Amino acid sequence: MKSALILSVVVGLTFSGLCPAQSSRSKVNVSYDKFDDLTEVSTSESKVDDVVGRKKEKQDLRLHARYVCAGNISRCRPDKVELMFVSYSVAEHVRSHDLILIIDGKRMRTSTPSWSTGDDGAGHPVEQIDFAISMEDLLRIARAEKVEGKLEQTTFKLNDANLAAMRALAGELESPMLRKTPN
């Protein structure tokens, strides 16, 4: 009986060690375009928390991230990662030129965004605001315990699902990039 209990604990611990790797892979989408010979590695779109817009109203703001590798390979050292915010709004973010993130208490500014508008395929208006960040900044976000942000006048917080997706995306990078760097 005692050996069966020990065996079940060992098997359980071994299995639990495997699960995070399997589940983190499922948070990352990898697609290869054979005509352009490029592989896109991306997270799925997920809501961010505590979103308050310029009119002090709750908003539906979502985040996903991606990078592109040359060739049929998901592990590479891309020059940049795109943080893509999707807002179910009309002209709320047309003047959003600044994204400030506070990563575990330290400020990070990003590049000038690209902004576009359209619909979600069901006729609902959406705005998309894209920012390019460095690999080092992605790794800072992925290692963070707490990330707050301000997109012009809209404030938000990344939740556990957002951070898990960033960690999964960072986990797809070429392994030398995964080393911890001093903050």
Report what the structure shows.
With 183 residues, the protein is of the alpha+beta class. The chain contains three helices and twelve strands. Strands 1, 2, 3, 5, 6, 9 and 10 form a seven-stranded antiparallel sheet that branches. β1 (28-33) and β2 form a beta hairpin. Mean pLDDT is 78; it is low at 1-25 and 176-183.
Summary tags:
183 residues, alpha+beta, 5-stranded antiparallel sheet, 3 helices, 37% strand, disordered N terminus
Layout of secondary structure:
Layout: H1 2-26, E1 28-33, E2 38-43, E3 46-47, E4 49-52, E5 61-70, E6 81-87, E7 99-103, E8 106-109, E9 114-119, E10 125-133, H2 135-143, E11 147-151, E12 154-157, H3 160-171
Antiparallel strand pairs: 1-2, 2-5, 3-5, 4-12, 5-6, 6-10, 7-8, 7-11, 9-10, 11-12
Task: Summarize the entry for a quick read.
With 183 residues, the protein is α+β, with helices and mostly antiparallel strands. 25% of the residues lie in helices and 37% in strands.
The total strand number stands at 12
Could you give the distance between the termini? 50 Å
Poorly predicted segments = 1-25, 176-183
Helix content: 25-40%
Biggest sheet overview: 7 strands, antiparallel
- Give the rounded overall mean pLDDT: 78
Given the helix and strand composition, which structural class is it?
alpha+beta
